[in-house]
Fold each of these.
Amino acid sequence: MTILVTGATGNVGRQVVEHLVKRGADVRALVRDPSKASFPAGVSVAQGDFLDVDSLRKAMSGVSTLFLLNAVVPDEFTQALVALNVARSAGIERIVYLSVIHADVYVNVPHFAGKFGVERMIEQMGFQATILRPAYFIQNDLMIEDVITGYGTYTMPIGTKGLAMVDVRDIADIAALELLRRERSAGPLALERINLVGPQTLTGTDIAAIWSDVLARPISYGGDNTEGFEQNLKQFLPAWMAYDMRLMGERFLTDGMLPEAGDVERLTALLGRPLRPYRDFASQIAGSA
């Protein structure tokens, strides 16, 4: 009984592998370049790519449970559908898929719409799946660490509705727990969606106040300008991705990323500990600044 982890060299996937190994699972990691992969002892490595069907067939042979994580790329939806079809042909029924919160609400944002399409296909294809829907990753703010600490401004377009930001470490921990629950189940488990949120819903000014506190100097919020946000992102991201992120930011401003009733309590019970707050992340950065 083997669990295949895709996206295994990324921040979430790598931690999922580590959690699974610590809990005694038989883990296979799908990577593009095995020479750049570093995993705990006992992890088998499969070289492959979502668009290389033969490599996927080889990687999924003998696999019982799949962790499906697709990067934000122009053909994300196609890659996910290829993976799902190959998985079904390989006899894999148990899946944990990393989607995004409000995928059915942010319908004009390309990578949200793509993930919602994948959710629908998982359901229509009859997989026994857990669909994880994380909110904004706290660690995304590493992108603007220098702006915060150097220029005294928090520039992410968070707005006033608030985001239930979640720590990547909590996402990986819950993903591993769900993979093991499905892997070790004696019988089929119903399809389930789980919102992955943090312990607080924070606005832009809330986050600026946290940074002001941990850095012991004023940090202002200046992130409602989504046009400027797009232009800044274009300096190091492809134009299509910068625009995708701008559209997401616009939905932050109009809709926020809000948890449903009971989400925090459910996750706390799953983990057996409190969710990690944003302040812990900011304090760690401030301590190393």
Note: The chain has a mean pLDDT of 96.
Amino acid sequence: MSKLKIAVQKAGRLNEDSLQLLKDCGISIDNGKDQLKASASNFPLEVLYLRNGDIPQYLKDGVVDIAIIGENVLIEKGNDIGIIERLGFSKCRVSLAIPKGKNYKKINDLDGMRIATSYPNTVKEYFKKFNVTPDVHIISGSVEIAPSIGLADAICDIVSSGSTLFKNNLKEVEVMLKSEAVLAVSPTISSESLLVLNKLQFRIQAVLKARKSRYILMNAPNDKIAEIIKILPGMRSPTVLPLAEKGWSSIHTVIEKDTFWEVIDELKQLGAEGLLVVPIEKMVV
């Protein structure tokens, strides 16, 4: 079986999260310090560590088969590249920001204004929808200082917490797009590599589903079981087992992590006791 070639960011948070995902999929990477290429010891996978901005071209050229990359980078440099899985980490937004002292009412206020960015294509496409034409200045790195040194009137950059904007006396005025890490595939991937990709994607889906879910166990009075089952959004059907104490049963199921507290409150109101909620390592549905 041929090795599937995957590109991940060479350094930074996206690199760490990408390698953790592969680890959670049971894939061991023989990773040496400062290596630009490494192979998995227990799966037909080869990892290439690349600059984030270069990855779309590597996908287009077929140098790598797949990549874990920020969706914002694909939109800027490779919007013709297919996305086969949204991974749920490295979330951010691409936003427009201006100095705090400036007034802003609508997007037309930026017509003809100088905007510093490393996302020129994203900016032009966004403003085109409003028939607005800014003066785009393409720079890489330290975009946020451009207004303070007189290089630009506004900036377009990725924003996570907003702390960098705050430190540079900027305020966010438009969210142009929201982004997260995605699994992208080369348009030239071979049929043999596609078979390996299907195996990898199956593992990834099992890990992602588990991250979003929690296994819940509880004791409940038998006369409330029907009502409890109605509010449990779990899998096909909860498991109900009789307890040694007459009139009580143990209920086991899976709930979504995001609805955890709301569901728990409802269960307690229906008399559920001894609730135990635990993480799930893998989940195959």
Note: Helices lie at 13-24, 55-61, 71-77, 120-128, 163-167, 191-211, 225-231, 260-269.
Amino acid sequence: MKFKIEPQPYRPGASFLTLLEKEILRFKKIALQTIFAPVLMGLLYLLVFGQVLAGKMPTFDGVNYLHFLVPGLVMMTMLQNAFGNSSSSMLSSKIMGSLIFIQLPPFAGWELSLAMIGASIVRALIVGAGVLLASFLWSPPPMDHLLWILVFGFMGAALMGSLGLICGLWADKFDQVGAFQSFVILPLTFLSGVFYSINQLPPIFQTLSRFNPFFYIIDGFRYGFFSQSDFNPWVSLSVVTISGLAAAGFATYLMPGLTRRINKKSA
């Protein structure tokens, strides 16, 4: 008896969901490193800076420093983990040679890129929620505009997931990704107003802070908690949205080029 295998129709949506599930399972396998460790790190930042600087750092009207610190730490943790998730996934797949197995099927470039970015968003939201819940051990911060919090959390994670994917596509070894994190991501994050309001800075440094895209992410995110911010939240949302769409589009554009590079090396 002969069996005939009928070809299945190509379903883009199903392919994307399969790739997304694969990426989520990847970081769930090592949850101790990818989820619990960042939450613990955020908790330590909150414990140390919240206690040491409480009452010494001016913040918004009617907002104590511990509450002011929580949104910044939550978003900082989300940004770092979104970037780390997509960059490590792409670079690991390239180094181990397993990337070819998801590029051989007829997956579109946007499916692969958006699946990795989507998994980065999921990881960032889980870690951010963990840090936020940990802050309840002291005093839960007010959350005046939940929609603003969710939108800035999503868009910030999408932007960093896209940048991490671009970095993973560019890098050939982990040292390059580590250098990019140490000399670009980490300084921009720490100088974006996580631990302070930029209104405390001299005018020239306030102006320089407005050239830091991470400032708009954290400032808009903080607006969702207190209905107060250092800058117009609608402008911040526009900057973050445009930057996120541009980064995601560029990462998707680079995907066919990576396929050609892999095929060239295999030939």
Note: The mean pLDDT is 85.
